[in-house]
């Protein structure tokens, strides 16, 4: 059984471009301009923090500063002594792997670190998924196992009891209880998140609620067999596992 990996938005080799405005500044005014800019607009490019603020211009006595988007130029330029403004096309999202970063560097100086987005699949996941597929009662279940391939929790959907008791939520509840009873084990210390270094295999794609619960649990990987039609949280359109605003990410692999 082979799984396809859910890759982050922007993983494509060639970047999607967006129009930015550059300010052409005399070198002797660089420090003053940077200080003023950071005082007034330090959060302006927070979603594009992979782009360096300053780079050397073609003329040795000038530098180019990333200034704003075209629609904000008129209201922002009055605060600065700028000789000239230039429009430029730059990557709209941060690079994800080394090859992509080397391409981005041709557009602008990039501060995003070099790294490879991990994509190695867990060799035991197909076997666990087959266990679910072979279940005679219901496939709407999940299996949670650790990095030693030991099954820690198995859970089934319980929405007949309560609408929010999807199998993933039931598994997280059982894991919390297991944590209380087995906190001497290295996977369940009180100072750790519940599912660190663990893998979840589930038949249905986790919904948005379950995908967020997995963020909080610090799950390592998730494998699912069938996509949800409407409320899935781990698909090409809505990748809860890769959201930049959240403080944890996990890998997702799927079959259909």
UniProtKB/TrEMBL annotation:
The entry's keywords: Hydrolase
Domain spans labelled CMP/dCMP-type deaminase: 116-241
Classification via PROSITE patterns: CYT_DCMP_DEAMINASES_2
GO biological processes: tRNA wobble adenosine to inosine editing
Pfam family, one: dCMP_cyt_deam_1
Name under which the protein is recorded: CMP/dCMP-type deaminase domain-containing protein
GO terms, molecular function: tRNA-specific adenosine-34 deaminase activity
Keyword Glycosyltransferase among record annotations: no
């Amino acid at each position: 059984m082979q799984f396809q990996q859910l890759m982050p938005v922007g993983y494509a080799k060639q970047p999607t471009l967006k129009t930015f405005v550059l300010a052409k500044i005399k070198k002797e005014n660089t420090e003053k301009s940077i200080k003023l800019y950071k005082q007034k607009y330090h959060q302006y490019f927070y979603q594009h923090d992979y782009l360096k603020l300053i780079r050397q211009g073609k003329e040795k006595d000038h530098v180019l500063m990333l200034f704003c988007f075209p629609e904000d130029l008129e209201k922002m330029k009055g605060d600065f002594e700028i000789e000239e403004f230039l429009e430029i096309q730059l990557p709209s999202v941060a690079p994800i792997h080394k090859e992509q970063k080397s391409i981005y560097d041709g557009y602008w100086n990039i501060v995003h670190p070099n790294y490879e987005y991990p994509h190695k699949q867990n060799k035991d996941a197909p076997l666990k998924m087959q266990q679910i597929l072979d279940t005679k009662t219901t496939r709407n279940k999940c299996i949670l196992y650790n990095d030693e391939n030991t099954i820690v929790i198995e859970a089934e959907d319980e929405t007949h009891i309560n609408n929010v008791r999807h199998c993933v939520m039931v598994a997280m509840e059982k894991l919390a209880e297991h944590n209380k009873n087995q906190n001497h084990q290295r996977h369940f210390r009180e100072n750790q998140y519940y599912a660190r270094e663990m893998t979840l295999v589930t038949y249905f794609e986790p919904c948005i609620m379950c995908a967020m619960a997995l963020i909080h649990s610090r799950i390592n990987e998730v494998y699912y067999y069938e996509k949800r039609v409407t409320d899935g949280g781990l698909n090409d359109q809505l990748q809860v596992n890769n959201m930049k605003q959240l403080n944890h990410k996990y890998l997702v692999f799927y079959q259909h």
